């Protein structure tokens, strides 16, 4: 097992109950697997934010960064997570 820190804000913080969570995950887990574990742990309220994670991609309304880098510039949902990684999950906000 490795440990990662998940940072969230706004409504995701409300669902998870805190802004920063340290979570043990199996070695070799990907971002996709992490999102699945989070839905298993915190329930269906997360599903709208991780709408298409089972198909290997995420859709708005979230942006995911691993150690400050958008996963779109890494290996997307297949980005492998390592011990000590910091994951920022941001719900996108629109305005005008």
Describe the fold and architecture.
The protein is an alpha+beta fold. The chain has a single domain (2-91), classed as Ubiquitin-like (UB roll), CATH 3.10.20. Helices cover 20% and strands 27% of the residues. It has two helices and five strands. Strands 2-1-5-3-4 form a five-stranded mixed beta sheet. A hairpin with a 2-residue loop joins strand 3 and strand 4 (69-70).
CATH superfamily: Beta-grasp domain
CATH first level: Alpha Beta
Shape, per Cα inertia axes: globular
Low-confidence stretches: none
For the largest beta sheet, what order do the strands appear in spatially?
A: 2-1-5-3-4
* Percent of residues in β-strands: 25-35%
Tally of alpha and pi helices: 2
Helix content: 10-25%
Distance between the termini: 44 Å
Please outline the helices and strands:
Elements: E1 2-8, H1 10-16, E2 20-25, H2 31-42, E3 62-66, E4 69-70, E5 86-91
Parallel strand pairs: 1-5
Antiparallel strand pairs: 1-2, 3-4, 3-5
